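hiii so um. not sure if this is the right channel but i have a protein structure encoded as tokens and i wanna go backwards to a sequence. like what aa goes where. can anyone help
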């Protein structure tokens, strides 16, 4: 059975920083825009995983080792994004996105970015 934590992620529900991909949060107002924030990680490929993925790609199917590595990398980028928001006095990120690129054939660069804001409930 697949462990859902191995193939998913995001900010925990009880986090003090809300991260959304939308431009607003229903039921909340933006009190202050802090500005752009990002969290970045660059990961090299594990040789064993890379060799296994090469064989698997010939046969077809999911490359589970690479999928797990990418999930871990995205989660690390998100953690760093949230740390930046806290450090700058925010409690939310609007319009969060991921950018993934190859880093000089050495690994994969994952950047989580968005707009840090301070929000409060309406009414």
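sure thing!! here u go:
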């Amino acid at each position: 059975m697949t462990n859902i934590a191995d193939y998913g992620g995001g900010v925990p529900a009880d986090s003090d920083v809300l991260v959304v991909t939308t431009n607003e949060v229903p039921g909340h107002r933006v009190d202050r825009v802090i500005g752009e924030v990002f969290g970045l990680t660059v990961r090299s490929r594990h040789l064993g995983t890379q060799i296994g993925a090469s064989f698997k790609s010939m046969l077809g199917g999911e490359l589970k080792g690479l999928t797990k590595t990418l999930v871990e990398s995205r989660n690390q980028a998100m953690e760093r994004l949230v740390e930046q928001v806290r450090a700058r006095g925010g409690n939310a990120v609007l319009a969060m996105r991921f950018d993934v690129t190859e880093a000089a054939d050495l690994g994969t660069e994952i950047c989580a970015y968005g707009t840090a804001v301070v929000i409060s409930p309406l009414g």
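oh and The beta strands are 18-19, 28-44, 92-103, 107-121.
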